[in-house]
Amino acid sequence: MNALHTILLVTNNAKIHDCVTASIRDDPHYRLIVCEREQDVANHLNVVNVHLLICDKALIADDVNNTLMNTRISNPHVARMVIGHVGEEEACASLAKRAAAYLFLIFPFPETLIQMAIERSLEMSELSRRHRVLSRELKISMDDGIFGEAAPFSVKGGWSQFEKLVYVSAKMAELCAEAKQAATTNLPILIHGETGTGKELLARAIHFNSDRMNAPMLVQNCGGINEETLLSEIFGHVRGAFTGAISDRLGLFRAADGGTVFLDEISEISPGFQVSLLRFLQEGEVKPLGSDEMGHSDVRIIAASNRPLDKMVEKGEFRRDLYYRLKGFELEIQPLRARPEDIPVLAQFFVEKYAGVVGNRVVGITQEVLDRLSAYQFPGNVRELETEIRRMVAVTEQGGYIAVRHLTPAMASVQPKVPGAPGAGFMPDGGTLKEMVESLEKQIVSQALQRNHWNQSKAAGELGLSRVGLANKIKRYELNDL
Ligand SMILES: Nc1ncnc2c1ncn2[C@@H]1O[C@H](COP(=O)(O)OP(=O)(O)O)[C@@H](O)[C@H]1O
Ligand SMILES: [Mg+2]
Predict the structure, then answer these.
(1) CA of 335 to the centre of ligand 1 (A)
(2) What spacing in Å lies between the alpha carbon of 323 and ligand 2's midpoint?
(3) CATH class, 433-476 region
(4) Which of 97, 133, 145, 237 fits as disulfide partner to 289, beta carbons 3.0 to 4.6 Å?
(5) Which ligand is the nearest neighbour of the Cα of 169?
């Protein structure tokens, strides 16, 4: 094995923890993430690329509705193992069977045994992964008409991944390389990007690639929240600090000690909060509201913004010194429309993600759908794509392909880009010059409207038309907001 494998161990038993840790000690091929509560497992699986889940039977509360069984459905490719104690053999066997686990082990066992079990289970899941890929390729080669030329790379699963971030574009590859580097440091990180581009997912990937991964990453959205509440959420308060403060509150910075705090919508914080945050970044000092005592906390800050902070600094809306402190690393996630080559792989990835969950075995997605999705502007970025695929998987018939008729009208009406056509992917219809020019005009106007969510003033501004001029074109070309 030369790839890095991630093992998620669910236990609060120090002896089991030590034994598993010892069994893989110093082996750079493994990363061990420990989670002490069953209810945290699903969150971990959503943000970390886990290969093997090892569950302590003692933490499994319900025989039927439990982490192992749920993982079998939501993340079937994650290998599973159960650890129980003497006397629990029967129960472990039945649980392992129902969850289709690789095996169960009864603690105490020698390190060498768990070490070998880990190795074998990972080999086994790698073999079944290869088997899946090959069978799918075989099926596709017999099914050419549906996928056309461009699809196979996406169907092969030939995408790159940084934890749960999936991509093929050079822009994302560069960004993830920088993020991995940033992860190894303790510097604050500032992530820019439109909503739905994956800022939070990137922050989690960074956290789980830093040596803080076994401490918590806590999230605070700073938008739409008043200064006092935000101060008390982050720095904590003592009882009686303000009306309604009926007991002490620890605050995120101290609750996440040793870990990471993700501050979303950082552009929205008040001048007063900016000062407190700056002091924390400079001195690591945490002063709860209403307290005279200064506490300390070691957390790494990752902040995110969908507004350009540098412009805000120029306008005097955000402190320059804080901005410079926050951007130990500055990462920008491009909107999806700026990296359309990621659209087909993301679509394929989400089909796989939801095909199993909804219980609807969708076979795949047609090239025609991928072409339209690739030409769509995605104002809501990856989140919008994910929501759309989830909906389409649910409405596609058993054993069928997601086809154009399943798309929402806004996406179905997109004119697919045709490589090599004039006008940056526009495909003019008609024979005479006048017809072709009109067809191009129609497509340009239609895309401008779509980009601006049918805000006609904005689209008109972008196209250099008057509102009336744009309204005339909408009428003439019978465009409508589907
Ligand atoms: N590159 C990606 N690969 C897979 N899923 C992604 C990617 N980018 C975003 N997502 C998914 O899109 C949704 C929105 O991501 P999120 O991190 O919340 O965006 P943001 O914080 O920028 O609004 C989430 O469900 C996330 O899992
Ligand atoms: Mg977000």
Answers:
(1) 11
(2) 20
(3) mainly alpha
(4) 237
(5) 1
Ligand 1: centre distance to CA 476 (Å): 39
For the chain, percent helix, then strand, then coil, each to nearest 5?
A: 50, 15, 35
Ligand with an atom nearest the CA of residue 194 = 1
Return the domain boundaries, the chain.
5-129, 170-332, 337-412, 433-476
Query: Could you tell me the pTM of the whole model?
Result: 0.78
For ligand 1, atom 23, the nearest C-alpha belongs to 196
Q: Where are the alpha helices (DSSP H) in 256-380?
A: 271-283, 309-314, 320-326, 342-357, 367-375
The whole-angstrom separation of Cα 439 and Cα 54 is 59
pLDDT digits (tens, 9 = 90+) for 1-60: 345 899 999 999 999 999 999 999 878 889 999 999 999 999 999 999 999 999 999 999
Q: What residues does ligand 1 touch, defined as CB less than 6 Å away?
A: 164-167, 193, 195-201, 346, 382-383, 386
Q: Which ligand is nearest to the CA of 167?
A: 1
What pLDDT digit, counting tens, does each position of 456-473 carry?
A: 988 898 898 999 999 999
The fold adopted by the segment(s) 170-332 is Rossmann fold (3.40.50)
User: Is domain 337-412 annotated with CATH 3.40.50.300?
Assistant: no
